[in-house]
């Protein structure tokens, strides 16, 4: 059984979560590719697909949401899980919400999980710094790798059941 973990990440925090998810599912015994969503041309080689994205302005990274929208027909035939990562204090009036739920519905994904991300002010561009200064969210790395590993392990066990069925 071949598994794809595809991720939309601007500064690498969500990519770090995807790497851990890939390691954990690989440790259960599956053949796993972890790819940036923009590099995925097709999902047909995979039996199961996990797609995750950082949230910016309430939305997924465009490469990750486009991957789901453009390959929806193929994804519907596969086992799919989604995850988002963000710093929930970063919210402004008018920010879109519910995109991940819509994507979950679109492909009939098993589940959408929300994980804490990371904010490194020094790496942000001028526009992002202005937004972050106005909101003043907690800076730093809030990723809970143990939680993410547990989530990925559950997926691995579920895939094991499916593979044996
Ligand atoms: C300009 C900006 C806007 C953001 N908007 C949101 C948001 O709407 N909701 C949220 O939960 N996190 C938001 N975040 C936090 C990011 O999702 C978080 O830093 C994430 O871990 C970044 O992942 P990456 O390093 O993979 O790009 C925002 C961060 C920045 C810099």
Could you give a short description of this structure?
The chain is built from 6 helices and 8 strands.
Structural write-up:
The chain is built from 6 helices and 8 strands; from the N terminus they run E-H-E-E-E-H-H-E-H-E-E-H-E-H. By secondary structure, it is an alpha/beta fold. Helix 4 links the parallel strand 5 and strand 6. The longest helix has 20 residues. The relative contact order is 0.20. It binds flavin mononucleotide.
Topology summary:
Blueprint (H helix, E strand, L loop, with lengths): L1 E7 L4 H15 L3 E6 L11 E9 L2 E2 L1 H9 L1 H5 L2 E8 L12 H9 L3 E6 L1 E2 L6 H10 L4 E2 L3 H20 L1
Parallel strand pairs: 1-2, 1-3, 3-5, 5-6
Antiparallel strand pairs: 3-4, 7-8
Flavin mononucleotide binds next to helix 1, strand 3, strand 5, strand 7 and helix 5.
> What portion of residues is helical?
40-55%
> Number of DSSP helices?
6
Radius of gyration, in angstroms, nearest whole number: 16 Å
Spatial gap, N to C terminus? 13 Å
CATH architectural name: 3-Layer(aba) Sandwich
Oligomer: single chain
Keywords, separated by commas or semicolons:
165 residues, alpha/beta, Rossmann fold, six-stranded mixed beta sheet, two-stranded antiparallel ribbon, 8 strands, 25% strand, globular, binds flavin mononucleotide
